[in-house]
Structure formats: structure tokens, C-alpha cells
């Protein structure tokens, strides 16, 4: 409490401290919020490259325990929107090498795919998102997640030495609206300097095309597209890249945590002003209200106070909240601020119990109580346990007029027994309760016999369990 009041008192001084200069009339000069007033770099250019593999396709870069390596390179223009979110315009060019995997085709069909992709991807800085705001240490590693959409053009080549008459097969798909694709992945960045980052990144490219691996235009024209049931061929890219951070500012926004900076500045100010005493005559009861305007100089330790230093008493019952066991309900001092319970007539108690019995739900045509009714039954049990042990009560079960009298009698008895057993499990004495199933002999709405004469809400009201005095 004292710390918060201290910081509140300092706010005007902090405002002056952040002002560069004052004129002769003591007016604070401010700078407009424009491009020049930015504190951090937020643009960068990234380049990199690495391996490319046809991962999930009919012809794949992984077969017989071997890896058929390909390559890829990329360049992107990156914009950091906040310290957590960014966006990049990405161009990727690469080539994959792949072969068929089935025993009767292994080593026969092989080829490659040259591809170009233009994509717009979002960037989430998980390290900034999950970082503790009170962590004062500098950090140089950050985990990023990527996801976006793009357009992918490609040219494939497929060679099958066993069938020279129709091979090689070439397929070309130029970048266009029909080449819509998805891309996503993760990366680990390291902050080398104020101008340069390095990143190890892996991305997964979902082409949406059956032809991306070169297996043919259709599933049957070459036979290779029948190897895998999927109609999309996907590539896996693994890259090592560099990000060149643009701008004159000392830090890039992706390496900044604004809350961390605010906490650090507050800690410095607190240290500078820790010995500053704002109370001329002190604070005798240590309640953060100076004795000069404290109307209660002997406030108990730990009590919440108002602006005049008076201990709070929310329900105005003469017992301060610190010592009040019922802070929102008035009660006498001798009962620690809680109201004294008065015995209620049996009829009133039964009416209160039936409020919690109203709407008790069971499984269809069963005596199993549904969990959503447990709360109401628990409250009813608490009321029953507070009554005199000499009182006796009946748990009555009733149904609507559908079905035979014998079936309804049996079902209502079983449900009354289920409620009785539940109340006993919650501490109610079995000696004060009796279960009685009345079936359709005890209709709340007697005009509902047969049930077709009434709307469904009346029939539902007839299917009930309620409480009466014995």
C-alpha cells in the first residue's frame, strides 16, 4: 500500500523528469508521435538458405534409409508490428530430389522439382509472449513461430529408365491464382549485435497439388501418384539465415520488452527515493496516511483504510473488515460481525429446501441424478442438517401421466430413494427422512391426464421430486 501511494505521489515529478526542456512560462514541450519519435528499429531484411526435401508425397526425398538432398534459398522483408507480432514478405527458391518408395518402383522413378514461392507470413515471438515482466536480464535467444499463405510455381522432371518411350516427363506450373499454398514452421533467433541476427529455421510447405513431386498430371497416367493416398505433395525446408536490422535506433523491437523496461525504470526511481519522507510528522500507525490528516492514529496493523486513515467497515456494523468474518452482512460484535441465526418455522424451511429441489434432473428413464443437480442438493442438505433432529420429512417422487401406473410408481420410488441416499451421503441423518414414490397419482397439474392435454412445460413440472413434513 505504501509503495503504491509513494509511486502515485511521484507521478508529477516523473512527468517533469521525462521532459527535455521547459520554456519561461513552465509549459512542457512535447514532441509529436511520428516516424522520428520511434524508439526502436522495426524493419529488417533477411536472407538465408539450406536443405529442401520432398517430405510427404508419392516420390519422396526419404527412401530406403537414405536422404536425397535438395537446396533452397530465401530473402524476405520483415516488419515488426509489436514486440510479439511481426509480418514478412518472403520469396523462396529451391529444388528437391526424390524417388519412388514402393518395392516394385524403388530406384526406377526418380526426378526433381524446381520451385519458386512468394508468401506473406505472420511471426509470433513466443519468447516475448511468455517472458516474465520482472526479469531484468538481457536476452539474446528467441523462439519464433511462423504461419502464412502464398503462391508456388514449379517445374518437375521425372525419369523412368524402364519405360523409355514415354519418359522423361516434365510438368510446369507457373505462379498464379491456382497455385495457392500454405507455409508454417518455427525458428530460433540469436541477437548477434544491434544490426545483425542469425536464425536456424525450419518451414513446411503445403502445395495442395498432386503434381508437385513430378509423379504425373493424374493419379493414373504414370502410376506413381497412386503410391500415396494424399492429394497434396509437401516440402520441408531447413535454413540458416541472417537478418539485417534497418534503422538508426540502438534496439530492434523484436528484442524489446516494454514492460520489462517500465519495471526497470520504476526500480531505479524507487531506489533513488527510498529515503524520501513525505510525512513531516510521521505515520504513527504505519497505514500510509500521514498523521497530519490521519483521523485514526491507532489503526490495527494489516487493516485496510480509507483516504482519511480510518479502518474500513464495509457493512457498517461496527466491526472493521480486518476482524469481520462476514464483511458484507451486518452482525453484532460478539458474533464477529456475522448475523445471529434465528430458528425458522418448519413450513419456511420446507419452502426453502424445495427451492433447491426444483428442477432436479435425472438420466432418461433412470434414477441416476445428473451432476448439474449436485450443487442444489448440497445446499438442501446443509439446510436439513440445521433443523431439529426430532423433525421428520418425506422425499416425494412424482411423474407425469405418460406410461403405465406401475412403471411410473416404480420409477418415482427409485428416484426418491436416489435423492434420499444422496442427502444421507452428505451428512443428513437417515432417521429423519422417508422416500415415497407416488408416480402419476400426485400430479402438480391435474388437468394433464392424459399428457396430450397440456403443453410440455406442465408435463415437465409434473415430473419432480419435492420435500414435505411427515
From TrEMBL:
One of its GO terms (molecular function) is calcium ion binding. GO terms for biological process: monoatomic ion transport. The keyword Secreted does not apply. Keywords: Cell outer membrane, Ion transport, Membrane, Porin, Signal, Transmembrane, Transmembrane beta strand, Transport. The keyword Transport applies. Gene3D superfamilies: OmpA-like domain (3.30.1330.60). This is OmpA family protein. It comes from Epilithonimonas hispanica.
Amino acid at each position: 500500500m505504501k509503495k503504491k501511494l509513494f509511486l502515485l505521489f511521484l507521478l508529477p515529478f516523473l512527468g517533469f523528469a521525462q521532459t527535455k526542456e521547459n520554456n519561461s512560462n513552465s509549459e512542457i514541450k512535447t514532441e509529436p508521435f511520428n516516424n522520428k519519435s520511434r524508439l526502436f528499429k522495426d524493419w529488417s531484411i533477411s536472407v538465408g538458405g539450406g536443405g529442401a526435401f520432398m517430405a510427404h508425397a508419392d516420390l519422396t526425398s526419404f527412401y530406403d534409409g537414405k536422404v536425397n538432398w535438395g537446396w533452397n534459398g530465401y530473402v524476405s522483408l520483415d516488419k515488426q508490428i509489436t514486440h510479439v507480432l511481426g509480418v514478412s514478405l518472403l520469396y523462396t527458391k529451391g529444388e528437391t530430389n526424390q524417388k519412388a518408395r514402393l518395392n516394385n518402383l524403388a530406384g526406377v522413378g526418380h526426378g526433381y522439382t524446381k520451385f519458386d514461392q512468394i508468401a506473406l507470413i505472420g511471426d509470433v515471438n513466443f519468447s516475448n509472449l511468455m517472458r516474465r515482466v520482472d526479469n531484468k536480464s538481457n536476452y539474446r535467444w528467441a523462439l519464433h513461430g511462423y504461419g502464412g499463405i502464398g503462391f508456388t510455381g514449379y517445374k518437375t522432371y521425372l525419369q523412368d529408365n524402364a519405360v523409355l518411350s514415354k519418359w522423361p516427363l516434365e510438368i510446369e506450373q507457373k505462379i498464379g491464382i491456382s497455385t495457392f499454398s500454405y507455409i508454417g514452421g518455427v525458428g530460433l533467433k540469436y541477437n548477434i549485435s544491434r544490426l545483425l541476427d542469425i536464425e536456424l529455421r525450419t518451414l513446411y510447405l503445403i502445395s495442395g497439388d498432386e503434381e508437385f513431386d513430378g509423379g504425373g498430371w493424374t493419379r493414373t497416367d504414370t502410376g506413381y501418384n497412386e503410391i500415396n493416398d494424399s492429394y497434396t505433395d509437401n516440402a520441408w525446408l531447413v535454413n540458416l539465415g541472417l537478418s539485417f536490422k534497418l534503422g538508426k535506433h540502438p534496439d530492434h523491437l523484436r528484442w524489446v520488452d516494454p514492460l520489462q523496461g517500465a519495471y526497470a525504470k520504476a526500480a531505479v526511481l524507487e531506489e533513488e527515493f527510498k529515503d524520501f519522507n513525505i510525512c513531516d510528522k510521521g505515520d504513527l500507525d504505519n497505514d500510509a496516511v500521514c498523521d497530519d490528516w490521519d483521523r485514526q492514529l491507532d489503526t490495527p496493523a494489516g487493516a485496510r483504510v480509507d483516504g482519511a486513515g480510518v479502518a474500513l467497515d464495509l457493512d457498517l456494523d461496527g466491526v472493521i473488515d480486518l476482524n469481520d468474518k462476514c464483511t458484507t452482512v451486518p452482525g453484532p460484535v460478539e458474533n464477529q460481525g456475522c448475523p445471529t441465526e434465528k430458528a425458522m418455522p418448519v413450513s419456511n424451511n420446507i419452502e426453502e429446501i424445495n427451492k433447491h429441489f426444483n428442477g432436479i434432473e435425472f438420466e432418461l428413464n433412470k434414477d441416476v441424478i445428473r451432476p448439474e443437480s449436485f450443487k442444489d442438493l448440497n445446499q438442501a442438505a446443509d439446510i436439513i442438517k440445521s433443523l431439529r433432529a426430532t423433525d421428520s420429512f418425506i422425499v416425494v417422487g412424482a411423474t407425469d401421466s405418460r406410461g403405465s401406473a406401475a412403471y411410473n410408481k416404480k420409477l418415482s420410488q427409485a428416484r426418491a430413494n436416489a435423492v434420499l441416499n444422496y442427502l444421507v451421503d452428505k451428512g443428513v441423518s437417515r432417521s429423519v427422512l422417508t422416500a415415497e414414490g407416488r408416480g402419476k397419482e400426485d400430479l402438480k397439474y391435474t388437468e394433464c391426464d392424459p399428457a396430450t392435454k397440456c403443453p410440455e412445460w406442465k408435463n415437465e413440472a409434473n415430473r419432480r421430486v419435492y420435500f414435505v413434513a411427515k
